[in-house]
Design goal:
By secondary structure, this protein is of the alpha+beta class. 54% of the residues lie in helices and 9% in strands. Among the domains are: 33 residues, no CATH class; 101 residues, Aminopeptidase N, middle-beta domain (Immunoglobulin-like, Sandwich); 91 residues, no CATH class; 90 residues. A hairpin with a 4-residue loop joins β5 and β6.
Length: 474
């Protein structure tokens, strides 16, 4: 790659060239034909990789069958196979990687298996036990992977995989399954119960000191609503909210002592340093504090107040404030918010952060947003201030999607105000309602009604009209 890059700059520096020229240089220095690889540039859509496995104990062989496909897109109904690099490992019962022996196109140095056909069967030999495959390590290819992992296998990978990315991904899949399953239960009126395999996996990761704080923080962070919504065909937002909140409550209360211990152990009186290790420590402490506060422990609120007051950096101060805002200590919330504004009211970016944190506070209401918009710090003519409050509120899923549709009506009202002031910004805000058809009938109708309200605006700009009309048609 370095030789190819050097040749590319030597040959084309200062010229207007294409990706084909760059790939040609890679072909020249490597001796490889990258014609098929260039389908990543010419074919639209995200490839899907479906994998099945089979173990033959008598022969000591383990077979992985790969089937790649890519959904049709406008103008491209038929897709040809891509070159897909799959970094992988095979884990034994002890959690260690097993030796890999195969005649397939596998590079032992990079641990990458390369597939080029629509269907590829790879046989691994010399195995005395059925392994658990660790696929797409380091996200080696941007594809949607489908493999029939059991919850127990995912928990096993989350606890043992040598690859940090796949440990994170396995736990994220467990979270996703648990939340979607509980969302289904909520819709059916059944009592919610977080799967024990998920709850226990969290304890394992939280107590694994061999993992860096940054990795642990990422693994212990639940998937957001954007990911949850993408995982379902029809968005029943109330059910997703109830399920995610139940999992948070379960983890917070069940492991209150773990979160407290982590939060306190991760404290530091050392001078502020900006490096990966310290950044990870602050990230994990902020998350642990958040969980601890969610458990409703008064000691957690006291710790957060002390962390805020004694912070020597903005990360610790913001972590403390965000954690407090996620709880129900209203007096402390107002005290810290007032202090934050007094400290930073002359710093534009800090004020925007202050606005965003409030807009994203659990339990925020439309009335609260309207009050925030009356604050001297807010200016509807300032695009960044508008984004801080309005987009921040729209990302506050639990509040924005209230059952009466007041959040949608507020957004429509702001778009109508901005129509004459900043039609470009107003048009971008319309996109916050563009996925209305993915929601349940009641929510979808309310979102569509907000779009119709926007379209009824007198002297509607072409920018806003085009976005709103397209959203309704789509």
């Amino acid at each position: 790659f370095r030789r190819g890059s050097d040749l590319y700059f030597e040959r084309f520096d200062g010229q207007a060239v294409t990706t084909d020229d760059f790939v040609a240089c890679m072909e020249e220095v490597s001796g490889l034909d990258l014609t098929q690889f260039k389908r990543w540039y010419s074919q639209a859509g995200t490839p899907r990789l479906t994998v099945t496995d089979q173990f033959d104990a008598g022969k000591g062989t383990y077979t992985l069958s790969f089937h790649q496909s890519c959904p049709a897109t406008p103008g491209q109904t038929e897709k040809s196979p891509f070159v897909i690099p799959i970094k992988l490992g095979l884990l034994g019962a002890d959690g260690q990687d097993l030796p890999i022996t195969t005649k397939a196109n596998y590079n032992a140095d990079t641990e990458v298996l390369t597939i080029t056909d629509e269907v590829t069967e790879v046989v691994f030999t010399g195995l005395s036990e059925r392994p658990v495959p660790s696929l797409l390590r380091d996200f080696s290819a941007p594809v949607k992977l489908s493999f029939g992992y059991s919850n127990e296998q995912l928990a096993f990978l989350a606890a043992n995989d040598a690859n940090g990315f796949n440990r994170w991904d396995a736990l994220q899949q467990l979270y996703l399954r648990a939340i979607l399953s509980m969302a289904t239960d909520h819709r059916a009126g059944r009592t919610l119960s977080a799967p024990s395999v998920v709850v226990e996996a969290v304890a394992t990761v939280a107590g694994d000191a061999s993992l860096s704080p940054a990795i642990r923080a990422s693994m212990l962070t639940l998937p957001g609503y954007a990911i949850l919504k993408d995982a379902v065909d029809v968005v029943y937002i109330d059910d997703l909210i109830a399920a995610r909140k139940h999992l948070v409550k379960t983890l917070a209360s069940r492991y209150r002592d773990i979160w407290r211990s982590l939060t306190e152990k991760l404290s530091s009186d050392a001078p502020y340093e900006f490096n990966a290790e310290e950044s990870g420590r602050r990230q994990l402490q902020g998350l642990s504090l958040w969980y601890w506060l969610k458990a409703g422990d008064q000691a957690a609120f006291d710790f957060a107040a002390e962390l805020y007051a004694g912070a020597t950096n903005q990360t610790d101060r913001s972590n403390a404030l965000r954690a407090v805002l996620a709880g129900d200590a209203e007096a402390l919330q107002q005290s810290l918010l007032s202090d934050f504004y007094e400290r930073w009211q002359s710093d534009t970016q800090m004020v925007e952060q202050w606005l965003t944190m409030q807009a994203g506070t659990p339990g925020m209401t439309v009335a609260g947003i309207e009050t925030l918009m009356q604050h001297p710090a807010f200016d509807i003519k300032n695009p960044n201030k508008v984004r801080s409050v309005i987009v921040g509120f729209a990302m506050n899923t639990e509040s924005f999607h209230d059952e009466k549709g007041e959040g949608y009506a507020l957004l429509a009202s702001v778009v109508r105000q901005l129509n004459a002031l900043n039609p470009q910004l107003a048009a971008r805000l319309v996109t916050l309602l563009s996925d209305w058809k993915r929601y349940d009938t009641a929510r979808g109708r309310m979102m569509a009604s907000a779009l119709e309200t926007i379209l009824a605006t007198e002297s509607l700009s072409s920018n806003v009209f085009e976005m709103a009309q397209r959203a309704l048609k789509d």
